[in-house]
Structure formats: structure tokens, C-alpha cells
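[job 4471] stage=fold_predict status=RUNNING
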Amino acid sequence: MDKLKLIPWDSAKYLGTEEEIALYMEAVMEEAGDDPDFVAHALGIVARARGMSELAHKTGLTREGLYKALSGHGNPSFATVTKVAGALGLRVSFPPAKARRAKSKRVPSAKQRRSAKPAKGGKRVAKKQVKAVGKPNAAKRRKAA
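[job 4471] inference complete, writing C-alpha cells
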């Protein structure tokens, strides 16, 4: 049986134009969620596509420092992220999050409706209130015993 030959995928090879880079980073921001390492790694990929040495010169950071900060395991400061984004011709922005489905008004479940017992006068009273009020004859029976 022939063995399948796999080649490592490098996204940086496919990010040649400004439009491709912008679309890539837009997709990254939508997919990243709350994962800053994912975003830093994506910036590292874009940086490699543009040339890490040139980017280091533009940002005033060392090439090695950029590789470390923009790896998936680095922890770049926000200042580093904004410097790198600016040098890459990108802008860090905070558009409003996509509107989630409007929450429907909560309808009490069947359990919640059953937990209330009718009291004297026909009003519904929660179980806790019924227990707190208690039965008047029960206290008399305990004293008698």
C-alpha cells in the first residue's frame, strides 16, 4: 500500500495581497472567540508573510522577540499587538458584537406553578410561606402530648 505523503501547511504562503490579509484577520477574529493566543499566532503568520525582519525594523522590536511574542505560546502586550498591526497596515478595532437572539420572556415551568398551594381565601401561596404559617392545630396537639 502506498504511503500518503503530507506536506506541512503554511498559511503565510497564501497571504500575498492586502485584501487576502484583511480577510484572513477578519476570519481569525470571528473564530478566535476569547483566545488571544490564536490571534497572536495569526498576526505571526501575517508577519511572516510580510517579512519578519522588515516588521522588526518598523516596530522597533527585535526579530526574535517578534517570533516569540507572535507564536501561539507567546504572551504579547496589547502595545505590541497594536504596533505590529499598525506596521502591517492593519487597525485594531472593536466593532459591536453580533446581536444574539433576543431572549424570550421566561415562562414559569410546570414545577414552579405546582409549587404554589392555594391558601385560605383562594390566593396562591408558595410552599415556604405555607410551612412558615404552619397548621394551628398541630402546635396544640404537640403541647397536649
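[job 4471] summary: The chain has a mean pLDDT of 76.
[job 4471] exit 0
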